[in-house]
Amino acid sequence: MKIKQIIALISLFILTVSCSNEVKNLSDLQSNFYELQHNGLRLGDSLNVYFFKNQELVDSVELTWNGKSVSNHMVMDNANTNLGVNELKIKVHLGSEFITGETHVPILNSTKETSISYDVINEYPHPKELFTQGFFYHDDKVYESSGHYGKSKIVTYHLGTTNFLQETKQEAKVFSEGISILNGKLFLLTYKERKVLVYDAQTFELKEEIALPNMVKEGWGMTTNGKELIVSDGTQNVFFFNEKFELQRKIQIAGYQSVYTYINELEFVNGKLFANVWTTNFILVIDPKTGAVEQFYDLTDLSESKGSDDVLNGIAVKGNQLLVTGKNWEKIYELPLPN
């Protein structure tokens, strides 16, 4: 009898070790863990990680969300997650052994963004030579930066004319990007040169250069909320800096269906962030606290684009109206702001 019991125990041990040896990765547990990066979640959804095979071998599971320990089936909200791409890690304990995994999960908004209907209020001439990068309206003048190596410059002109009031050119090795004024200084992003040029806003005299922080992939769009400089880098990320370019915070831009990449030209309007999606005819209206896209303009009917370069890329606010234009466009269009 004792011999039979010993044999049974040995058989059970061998079976357990054999089963444990079969689990080398999450695929052996038939987990949905890696599917989360493709399916994504919305605010209000639960984070659910399942195992459909060899569940009996799993002793415990550890999950971390953006570096913080979380429980399985956690409900996503603005307190515990960010819109956009989030890091998810897992550690599955199997007796004395464990397996790990890492993925990135998109979190989308729970509310659909709505289209803004509009009629064109007015049309103005736009200097067609300008490869529009930055664009805003200030002190009854249009400020505009124009890109391309060897052709980059900042100009001002009165709306309705194409004669430059001021013009300052950048070095041939500089590709100018977004511009904004804060505290009497005119800030200019550069595309790949990893620096921000700072001018006197009145005289256009170059005062200093600031290194572009490493977390910013490239210089693209820029605006201000009156306290901070808000910067895009061609990804879904939007950064908020003080005037010394010290990071204050970051958001990611996400709607109901997708995370929006190629965020480009920016404008801060009545507490909302307006952003153009590069190579598209869309301007997004965004909650600057969360990155949630709430509304959008579809400007397809206004587009002067005939190729991949001459695309929509200028957003400015003039009183209660919006001004929009594009790279090498002939016109500036005046539109109503959303209600």
Description:
The chain has 339 residues and is mainly β. The protein folds into two domains: 26-108, Immunoglobulin-like; 114-336, TolB, C-terminal domain (Neuraminidase, 6 Propeller). It contains two helices and 26 strands. It has helices spanning 2-22, 36-39, and strands spanning 41-42, 60-65, 68-70, 84-94, 97-108, 114-115, 122-125, 132-138, 141-146, 153-157, 166-169, 176-182, 185-190, 195-200, 206-211, 222-224, 229-232, 237-241, 247-252, 263-269, 272-277, 282-286, 293-298, 312-318, 321-326, 331-336. Strand 16 (222-224) and strand 17 (229-232) form a beta hairpin. The radius of gyration is 26 Å and the shape is elongated.
What structural category characterises the helix and strand content?
mainly beta
Major sheet:
5 strands, mixed
Strand order of the largest sheet: 1-5-4-2-3
Mean pLDDT: 93
CATH topology of the largest domain: Neuraminidase
Unreliable stretches covering 5 or more consecutive residues: 6-20
Count of the domains: 2
Which CATH C-level class of the largest domain is it? Mainly Beta
Keywords: Signal, Transferase
Organism: Moheibacter lacus
InterPro entries: QCT, Quino_amine_DH_bsu, WD40/YVTN_repeat-like_dom_sf
Signal peptide: 1-20
Key terms for this structure?
339 residues, mainly beta, Immunoglobulin-like, Neuraminidase, five-stranded mixed β-sheet, 26 strands, 44% strand, elongated, glutaminyl-peptide cyclotransferase activity, Quino_amine_DH_bsu, signal, Glutaminyl-peptide cyclotransferase
